[in-house]
Amino acid sequence: MEAIRGCWSVKELERQINSLYYERSGLSKNKEALSALVQRQATQLQPKDIINTPVTLEFLGLNDRALVTENDLEQSILDNLQRFLLEMGHGFCFEARQKRILIDGDYFFADLVFYHRILKCHVIVELKIDKFRHEYASQLNMYLNYYKAEVMQSDDNPPVGILLCTEKGDTLVKYATAGLDPNIFVQKYMIELPIRTDKLKKTATTAATAITSGVASLFGSGKLKELEHANEKLQDEVSKRDTNIEKLQSQIQQMQKQHDTQIHNLREMHRQELDMKEKELSRLARIIDKAFRWFPMFREMLRMEKFCAMLGFSKELTERLVVRKEAMRCSGKIYSEQHRRNFDIKDDILRVENDPDDENRLNLTINRKPIADWFREQWHKFRFGYQETINEPRKGRGFRL
Fold first, then answer.
1. Does residue 209 lie within any of the structural domains?
2. Domain for residue 313, yes or no?
């Protein structure tokens, strides 16, 4: 309980056991004071203490051939999130997947984001399906700097970055992370526990020797030679099969590497296409923004064009009214969204004019009357004309005696 309450590391727990803290606590007359003193002197949990070496992901149920992309690994982790959190250790809380980060108009995506409630900091996990490369460290360092500047709260500790790779070279990791954030940790992960075939073969050989010795004592030297000959033949067959298996594994690894290269190239092409589209969208957004600033009435003309389309005007009529500012004599029906019905116009003059109260606003008028007032007037006529029709007295038919 003291270790959990004080967030002790494994080394601190071992130190307290060796210092007989349990016995001293039992003999102490003031257990609370002793506990407070020990907690003050204890070495608190550090970011490096939460990193497992290596990270074992065998519970995902993947193997080298099944693992194709980082998305497959990421999805498998999310499908087994509870086991992954247990593997990572106590205190991890899941926060986001593919966390989008916007920097200078470009989007970046952090694979997995956790919050460590004991260290009180964000933990960013980057997943890679190949061995460590130096650019991976700089990418993770950028994410940590972004979280420090944009996400970290005043009571948070600096974020921690964990880079999980299939292989890593300690020298390359040392030189690649030198000068970067000290909270960047590069770790190897395994999706399958290695099988020690050498130990199995040695055990099998020892067992065979023991059996042969026992058989020799029972059947004599002639029978022993036959068994030895059969054993050698069997070992030759096993050796040939092992050679064939190694060849097949080598071919599978080559095919896997080719496939990984193709996937990588396709993902790179897709990323470049997305970047080009993002840049094009940004360029169009800047052009539209300039158009709104250079031509103040442009936005208002777009609004009026949309309003005319809602009324049921054709594109040609809308262009003559909004762009050319022509007065059009029209007949037909126009739709009112407010009253949810069509109203008839006959030889009425439609015109788009500047609002007399606001020169930067356009109004559609019918016979020089704003269309909103015109709609209210037509609705009033329709409503009261309909009521007069209903209230018109019927002629009595009388009755016969």
1. no
2. yes
Residue with tokens 């009595």: 396
Q: Which stretch of 133-147, 195-209, 380-394 has the lowest confidence by average pLDDT?
A: 195-209
What is the arrangement of strands in the sheet containing 328-336, beginning at the earlier edge strand?
A: 328-336, 341-354, 362-366, 369-370
Q: What is the pTM of this model?
A: 0.41
**Range of the structural domain that residue 279 is part of:** 241-294
Measured on CA atoms in the order 31, 35, 41, 42, is the torsion positive or negative? Answer: positive
**Strand 362-366, strand 341-354: pairing:** antiparallel
Cross-strand pairs, 120: none
Question: Residue 285: CB partners within 8 Å, gap ≥ 6?
Answer: none
CA distances (Å), origin 122, targets 83, 118, 128, 148, 178: 20, 11, 20, 10, 22
Tell me, yes or no, whether 27 and 58 share the same domain: no
Q: pLDDT confidence of 125, banded at 50, 70, 90?
A: very high
Residues 37 and 101 in one domain: no
Pair (176, 105) in one structural domain: yes
Give per-residue pLDDT as tens, 289-331.
877 777 777 888 888 899 999 888 999 999 998 888 899 999 9
Please say whether the beta carbons of 43 and 178 come within 8 A. no
- 215 lies in a domain? no
Q: Do 95 and 108 belong together in one domain?
A: yes
